Amino acid sequence: MTDTAFDTTPAIDPAALKVSDEVAIEISNMNKWYGSFHVLRDIDLTVHRGERIVIAGPSGSGKSTMIRCINRLEEHQSGKIIVDGTELTSDLKNIDKIRSEVGMCFQHFNLFPHLTILENCTLAPIWVRKTPKKEAVETAMHFLEKVKIPDQANKYPGQLSGGQQQRVAIARSLCMKPRIMLFDEPTSALDPEMIKEVLDTMIELAQEGMTMICVTHEMGFARQVANRVIFMDQGQIVEQNEPEEFFNNPRSERTKLFLSQILGH
Amino acid sequence: MTTLTDPPAESFKLSMLVYDTRYRSITFQILALVAVLLLFGWLTMNTAQNLNDLGKEPSFSFLGESAGYDINQRLIDYSSQSTHLRAAFVGLLNTLLVAAMGCATATVIGVIVGVLRLSGNWLVARLMTVYVEMFRNVPVLMWIVLCMAILIEAMPPPSAFRGDDPDATMKLFDSVAITNRGVYIPEPLFSRSLGDFHVGAAFDVSINLIAILIVLGASIFVARGIARRADAKQEATGLRPRTWHTRLAVIVLPTVVLLAILGFHLGYPELKGFNFAGGTYMRNSLIALWLALSLYTAAFIAEIVRAGILAISSGQTEAAAALGLRNNRIMSLVVLPQAMRVIIPPLISQYLNLTKNSSLAIAVGYMDITGTLMGITLNQTGRELETVLLGMLVYLAISLIISGVMNWYNNRVKLVER
Ligand SMILES: Nc1ncnc2c1ncn2[C@@H]1O[C@H](COP(=O)(O)OP(=O)(O)OP(=O)(O)O)[C@@H](O)[C@H]1O
Ligand SMILES: [Mg+2]
């Protein structure tokens, strides 16, 4: 992957963005197995409110699995995950509470193809938050304007380009007013010219102080937006650091190898 | 007149009929049509010739003759003096009745079983698998006969309802009696009749019924108009007037008033002597056929529903779950509406199968179109060709209507793609 998508984006200063002391997510000593396969080993991670974290690592290293554990799309088997003060257990109430505070965007957008863009955005607020329809529509239009596609509101997902679909997916998550956003390779399925429009949307989110955890290979995005880059390999967090340090002085051999492959030199 | 963009005119050559893609398919379709017409013409002439030789000229005049047999389950008036045509019509209505009831219940059971088969609960999923395998691997005829046998053996005879301390009692506030002859239920009655409307010489349709249907239809039309006005207002001002209560009133009130004017009341079944009188009833043959057809077809529908659900990618479920929707909502709001597109085409053929399988009614003595027209009427009049042709035409018409309606529905819910 390259950082070319960022050449034209006005630079922001990651240091200027506020990170509070308040803990948003705390993962301690978390393990997960698929059958006998140990996918996640002793994961320890504390995320403060307002942090923008980028997770990188080779394919199959468990990046997706880890962030999917945070909203219980995957179940962890040992250790603790505490999101916004609520511990993830098999208790449905806790899961509901956490899911309504944590938004997620997927590689393949996963918009609902039988619903219009607007209906995609109002579905969860109406059925989960019990928002009156009119209010839900207003909120949806607000966020659709924010991702710059209000004029597509009455189309169906199949009629939009990939970049537009991913921005709708972001708007759909935002309609639930989440305090934390998870992104799992949001730009990997997109053509280069569409990557920028999605990343721009994400940068804007970051500037507004959203807590973000983002699995991505867009190293330009990591340099520009992240306050911390995490490198995972074989189910472990191998290294984490500020972007500059991470890219310029990687400590472990595995990180160096990965960076040399991904940056193409 | 030719414009600049027109291609240069091409002279037509005979070989283009075969080699030019513009004409090729038309040529072959015409050839095939001619061949089929010739074949049919030859078959018809041949049959007519043979029947002539036997001294049996094809004729449908038997339909006007008196049928001379009784039908014990019927939706319209009929007696043994009625014509064969009317007997056939009673049979047709019986076929439609069991087919409609069967399709409805089979769909409900099928969807529930199909969803439960995918449930995380091991026991429930296994039980549903057992149900599906049991029903779809045994011929439906056996299920029909078995249901009949169970109903006859397990239900109390009407005499059990007699006496001061009866062995059996009526259910639902003394309005329903379940016996080994059938189920007796209240019937709708009118104390004032507007008379009958004569269709041809043979059929009378109650004007009460027509009046009710017209009033109901008109009310629904008006209610939809109100809803459309509300839509328009919402679009213009952003505020939607609250109209559901006026709409409900518009639909319900006129019909209720009309029912009151016509003196609508229920006639309850009552034990008179050795049997129930009053009310209306479903014979065991109808119930057995309905049950067996529903359960049998539901097993197939369950498989179709399961396949349809599995065809929806797990990404859809995950996205919905990540938004905080619970499992039952994910199923009803996200998965099933999409699965419908995969489910409907095979569902159509299950409806058609059920309708055609209903001709097995003859095994339990339920008088459907097969039992009347192609059963007793055929035996009495010896008109094999005519009755079978008519019967086939009837089933063909029913099937075409079912697929027409379902295809229309399928087109309406199709996904919008680019
Ligand atoms: N449902 C599953 N059952 C068994 N193994 C699984 C399952 N899901 C993932 N795995 C395995 O777990 C490991 C981690 O998968 P994960 O999807 O988290 O990797 P990733 O880091 O996101 O990779 P990528 O960059 O390719 O998306 C992989 O080896 C994968 O094969
Ligand atoms: Mg992944």
UniProtKB/TrEMBL annotation, chain A:
InterPro entries attached to this UniProt entry: AAA+_ATPase, ABC_ATPase_HisP-typ, ABC_transporter-like_ATP-bd, ABC_transporter-like_CS, MetN_ABC_transporter-like, P-loop_NTPase
Assigned protein family: Belongs to the ABC transporter superfamily.
Cited SMART domains: AAA
Keywords, comma-separated and alphabetical: ATP-binding, Nucleotide-binding, Transport
A Pfam family matched in the record: ABC_tran
Name of the featured protein: Amino acid ABC transporter ATP-binding protein
Organism: Pseudooceanicola sediminis
Start and end residues of each ABC transporter domain: 25-259
GO molecular function: ABC-type amino acid transporter activity; ATP binding; ATP hydrolysis activity
UniProtKB/TrEMBL annotation, chain B:
Bilayer disposition of the protein: Multi-pass membrane protein
Residue ranges of every copy of the ABC transmembrane type-1 domain listed in the record: 92-406
Ranges annotated as spanning the membrane: 26-45, 87-116, 137-155, 205-227, 248-267, 287-309, 358-376, 388-409
Classification via CDD domains: TM_PBP2 (cd06261)
One Pfam entry name: BPD_transp_1
Key words of the record: Amino-acid transport, Cell membrane, Membrane, Transmembrane, Transmembrane helix, Transport
Record GO terms (molecular function): transmembrane transporter activity
Family: Belongs to the binding-protein-dependent transport system permease family. HisMQ subfamily.
Protein known as: ABC transporter permease subunit
